[in-house]
Amino acid sequence: MDNQTELVAIYVGEQWQATIVKELLNDNGINAFIENELMGSIAPWQIAAGGMASVTVMIASSDYVLAKPLVDEFTNGSNPLPEEADEE
């Protein structure tokens, strides 16, 4: 990804689920990374209230249309995304 690319959240969840989603996307040619990966595993309550949904999988906004169906299939359509991703 170049430094001009806007990043968006495609998945919010626990560390182990986010890792699966990231690998699923990478396996399908979509560059993805986990935001707050280290803090999400050390102190998830500092990232999200109650420690739930402590990490976020980020992708380029240009990949959102391709990635959304893959993530929806993994989550059975029950992925709580932050508001900014829903506006895409």
Radius of gyration: 12 Å
Q: Provide the structure class.
A: alpha+beta
CATH architecture term: 2-Layer Sandwich
Strand content: 15-25%
- Summed over residues and divided by their number, the pLDDT gives a mean of 77
Q: What ranges have pLDDT less than 50 throughout 5 or more consecutive residues?
A: 84-88
The number of domains: 1
The CATH class is identified as Alpha Beta
Counting DSSP E segments of at least 2 residues, the number of strands comes to: 3
Spatial strand arrangement across the major sheet? 1-3-2
Number of helices: 5
How would you describe this protein?
The chain is built from 5 helices and 3 strands, in the order βαβααβαα. The chain has a single domain, classed as Alpha-Beta Plaits. The chain has a 3-stranded antiparallel beta sheet with strand order 1-3-2. The chain has helices at 15-27, 37-42, 44-47, 64-75, 83-86; strands at 7-13, 32-35, 55-60. The model is unreliable at 84-88 (pLDDT under 50). It is globular, with a radius of gyration of 12 Å. By secondary structure, the chain is an alpha+beta fold. It comes from Williamwhitmania taraxaci. Residues 13-74 form the DUF2007 domain. Pfam families: DUF2007 (PF09413).
